[in-house]
Amino acid sequence: MPQHSPEYRTRRFFNWFPLGLTYALLYMGRYNLTVSQTALGDLMPKADFGEIFSVGAWVYALSFLVNGPLTDKLGGKRGMLIGTLGACVSNLLMGLYLGHVLAMPDPKQANLKLVFTLLYGLNMYFQSYGAGAIVKVNAHWFHVRERGVFSGIFGAMISAGLFLAFDVNERVLRYVQAGGVSGPEATRWVFLVPALLLAVFFLIEIFMLKDTPSQAGFADFDTHDASSGEGEAQPAVLEVLRKVLTHPVILTIALVQFCTGVVRNGVMHWFKIFAKEHILAGQAGGWTFTNDNWGLMLMVAGITGGMFAGIVSDKFFQSRRAPAAGFLYGTAFVASLLMIPFLQNGWALGLLVFVMSICVIGTHGMLSGTATMDFGGRKGAATAVGIIDGFVYLGAGAQSLALGILTTRNWYYWPAFMAPFALIGFLLLLRIWDAKPMAQKKPIPIETEEDI
């Protein structure tokens, strides 16, 4: 592992920290839909929310087939700038359209579901540039033995985004309501504020973000990932895509991440909606506490899970990612089963979903943020994260559509739906328990089974 100078570490910080904040703001402009659902009430019932988010998640997932290889070709900086600007404009359009609808004599006459499906789908298309771009950039700046710790950083950035998405958006909503604006009418600011902040960070990243150390005046170095020993020329898009799609470890991680999409988003979105229903029914206690601090709880859970997974992976498992992720998945399975008998206890359920959030956000940061750099390499990092994060959102879309229907019938279907996916994720991780990247001494198409 190279010994970096203090100057290099300082410049690397000013590269990844604004980049991470930009990614967090993308989350603020992605999961604001959940906050809007609880505020809009009958204008966006649970089934409609489930369908809108499901379509957006699938757009996000399928866009990676184009945006992942494109980001590898264009570079992480351009990918992040495209994604940030596009998400900014999409959120602006959603806020303006919502303001238009709520100014109508009868807002229910507007086809809110259709228009929001289209605009949220557009938002998620541009959002899909973010993960590939952040991993593409950092693959050049971090050695493979530093990346476990980086996964903790990546998880912390995601977690900060969840805090912004749920708690800060909720506080924006309450602030506007305190000024005398009704709940539904105030909801447009849940979209307009993220749009403004994304515009600010778009300008910051134009000047601050650099794709490689050499662009910032430092020497590039061998990161000892799957691209090691292949030279610096970027291969053709189809070649990168072929390598990633035929890599057995990446494909297994993709299937694990499908399960992550089901469990992570199943907890993240539906607990808040469930708690809100209890509060509207006149119940307080644990329901009020967890609802009011849901974003903060997710942020603490994500930082805890991300740092745990990253440090354990690097320090105890020689940069193998599956053992740390497997422990977290096993814990998530047990917690999902315990949700069933404690479903109507606000405090107990809040604790269980907090534990599950530690597990699934930590796993997500480890596999999407670190394993993609390891096995995709510097040249295929964005394509690898595209495939893997795409599967996350295929899972997110499936759970959103299913739980929108199931929770309308009976909330006990909620944990029962998530538990099998937690178990499947754990079993899949057993298959790649010893996998870690092998540096190449000469160009070869792909690692063989013996390399895994």
Structural features, described:
This protein is mainly alpha-helical and 452 residues long. It has 15 helices and no strands. It has a single domain, classed as Growth Hormone, Chain: A (Up-down Bundle). The protein is 77% helix and 0% strand. The longest helix has 64 residues. The protein is globular and about 60 Å long. The two termini are 21 Å apart.
Specify the overall morphology.
globular
Number of domains: 1
Radius of gyration over all CA atoms, rounded? 21 Å
Distance between the termini: 21 Å
H/E topology pattern: HHHHHHHHHHHHHHH
The CATH topology:
Growth Hormone, Chain: A
Main CATH class: Mainly Alpha
Q: What's the count of strands?
A: 0
Instruction: Provide the helix percentage.
Output: over 70%
Structural class: mainly alpha
Mean pLDDT: 83
Largest sheet: none
Identify the CATH architecture.
Answer: Up-down Bundle
Query: Treating each run of at least 4 consecutive H or I residues as one helix, how many helices?
Result: 15
Strand content: under 5%
Low-confidence stretches: 439-452
The named CATH superfamily: MFS general substrate transporter like domains
